[in-house]
Amino acid sequence: xxxxxEELLKSIWHAFTALDLxxxxxxxxxxxxxxxxxxVLSHNLCTVLNVPHDPVxxxxxxxxxxxxxxxxxxxxxxLNKFILEKVQGNFDKVEFNRMCWTLCAKKNxxxxxxxxxxxxxxxxxVIFNFLSEDRYPLIIVPEEIEYLLKKxxxxxxxxxxxxxxxxxxxxxxxxxxxxxxxxxxDLIGSGHFSKGMDRQTVSMAINEVFNELILDVLKxxxxxxxxxxxxxxxxxxxxxxxxxxxxxVSEDLKEKKGDIILDGNCCVEALPDKDGKKCLFLIKCLDKxxxxxxxxxxxxxxxxxxxxxxxxxxxxxxxxxxxxxxxKRKELRQKLLAEQEELERQMKELQAANENKQKELxxxxxxxxxxxxxxxxxxxxxxxxxxxxxxxxxxxLEREKMVRQKMEEQVAQKSSxxxxxxxxxxxxxxxxKQLQEALEDEKQARQxxxxxxxLQARLLEEETAKRAELEKWHLQQQQTIQMTEAEKQELENQxxxxxxxxxVAMEQLKQLELERKEALEQYEEVKKKLETAANNTxxxxxxxxxxxxxxxxxxxxxxxxxxxxxxxxxxxTEAELEQRQRSWKGKKAASE
Length: 592
What we know:
PH-domain like; two-stranded antiparallel ribbon
């Protein structure tokens, strides 16, 4: 019932979106409140869904007349509680969809001329609701578009242009995720994928796909059915569905003659030709048995296989093949989406880790730049100190030279100044020591500079190692992507192997069909030989019987009653018998 409710909601959603909406996205008062609009809409839904309409419940649900359907109560909660929850499935799906189509088609259907009729557009709209994703606003993804176009192309008997659809799919994926119902109708109505086909062929193909996907028609066609009372054979149009075979007077389905209810206990068997009817098979149910004659052996085998497949599905409790295939396609898309989301999550994690490492590297780089700036500043100070010392030393040297000159000039004159000169020398020695200490300081500064340079080299080595680690993570990321591609390729290989196995099975089936035909031909030859042998045996028995006088030619006799012998009615009259007796007595007397 949940799947049925989802299908109903899709059609009703189209009808609601065709109504005027207010800013809050709810149905406006003018559409549902004015002139009893909500009563009419609810009544129509209840009518087509075979649900009893309860106007009192509607009024109780919308007790606030000032707000009505746009109140907190809302129309959708009412729809779910009082209408959809009561749906039992005993309604005409086509009539329900046609009512919703009537509400939304006029507003949304393209005004440009299409190659399909309004009826075909309605069927495409219903198929869209069946194949669309279970999220709103409704769209049909490219995979389902390809599935639908392939079905229509096969029904038209044309070849599928995969390359043409791939170009269209690439153009579609660059702009959005899928198509709306009206865009799908425009695509099919434009004839882009049905070039060279007339309107009638396209219409018949859409109708065939509609019957299969929406009406669950697994097979249909004309066959002869043997009556239960009169035992006469009548041509009927048979329609096979998941749990019943209905037969009609003609393919317009106007006059239904009966149903063959199928369940897990039913079986179908092939019958030999009899009573001038060929290609016979038998459908056995609990209460009745139906004899049916197909038009040829191929149709007979197709119907037997289709009915047996349907019975097997009923035994297993499985849905129809097209619904099961749609569910598998959805599960596969969900699986691929989950894998893609997981891959994106891993990519984001790697990207975040990469960004963190980049930030750490940036911090280390700034620290190195700061250390280099400090080292440059210290080097600048050292050079400045060295220049100052050199200038001071030069000044001191000049002063010493001048002092020495003065002392040499005054040595003879002022011996008393010798002590002063020696004192000055000691001062100069002290200054020399200071100069040596300054040189030692300079040497120590150079060693410090060399230490800073070694630290900078070590940090650069760490940066190189971290860059190598990042490249390793990048390679691991690429390997993960390649593994995902490999898994996709493995799935594709499995699909190709299954297709090859299917092709081999089909070839074996064709070979068995040829062997069966050869066996039938051999059977016919043996049958003819047996008939020839039987005729020869009969001729031989006739000759023996004639030779021994046991039989005679049958001639017209008199109208008198015939005599009865131990072997049955005699072939002679009473007069003839008397004549034979006289002749026999005469022969006996002559012999005596």
